[in-house]
């Protein structure tokens, strides 16, 4: 994925691949490196998306690409914050867990802002099972339970 970002591949294709890879990994076995590696890509792929979409002249194309990006980016976050991933998060050191959870939540919020910046519709609704519902609550639960 890092090489795809460095090449400047379409950001929405990178996040679609990331979401697909995470889904496959979660169905087998997720490791701490899967979490930290995925989270470490978020800032760079967000920057890439913003730069690519700013360069587009067609507002509809920008919106479509931003929507596809945000859906797949959010799906990746949803998978990383799923109940199945929680034990892997708990295996990370407290510093790594807090840093990466904070980066992930911030990146998910930034992806929603990116969509808002490039949308021409008055409303968009995206549905995720875990990151809106559990993201902050899970982090808080980990902190309060003494695991952090």
Automatic annotation (TrEMBL):
Taking every annotated instance into account, which residue ranges of this chain make up the domain AGRL2-4 GAIN subdomain A? 16-116
Q: What InterPro entries does UniProt report for this protein, alphabetically? A: AGRL2-4_GAIN_subdom_A
Cross-referenced Pfam families? GAIN
The record ties this protein, via Gene3D superfamilies, to: 1.25.40.610
Write the protein's name: AGRL2-4 GAIN subdomain A domain-containing protein
Give the species this sequence originates from: Oesophagostomum dentatum
């Amino acid at each position: 994925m890092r090489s795809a970002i460095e090449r400047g591949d379409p950001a929405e294709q990178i996040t679609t691949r990331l979401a697909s890879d995470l889904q496959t990994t979660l169905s087998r076995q997720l490791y701490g490196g899967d979490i930290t590696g995925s989270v470490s890509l978020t800032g760079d792929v967000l920057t890439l998306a913003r730069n690519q979409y700013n360069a587009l002249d067609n507002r509809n194309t920008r919106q479509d690409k931003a929507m596809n990006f945000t859906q797949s980016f959010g799906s990746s976050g949803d998978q990383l914050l799923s109940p199945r991933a929680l034990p892997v998060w708990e295996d990370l050191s407290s510093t790594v867990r807090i840093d990466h959870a904070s980066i992930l939540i911030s990146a998910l919020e930034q992806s929603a802002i990116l969509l808002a910046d490039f949308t021409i519709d008055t409303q968009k609704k995206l549905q995720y099972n875990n990151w809106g519902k559990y993201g902050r609550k899970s982090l808080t639960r980990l902190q309060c339970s003494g695991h952090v």
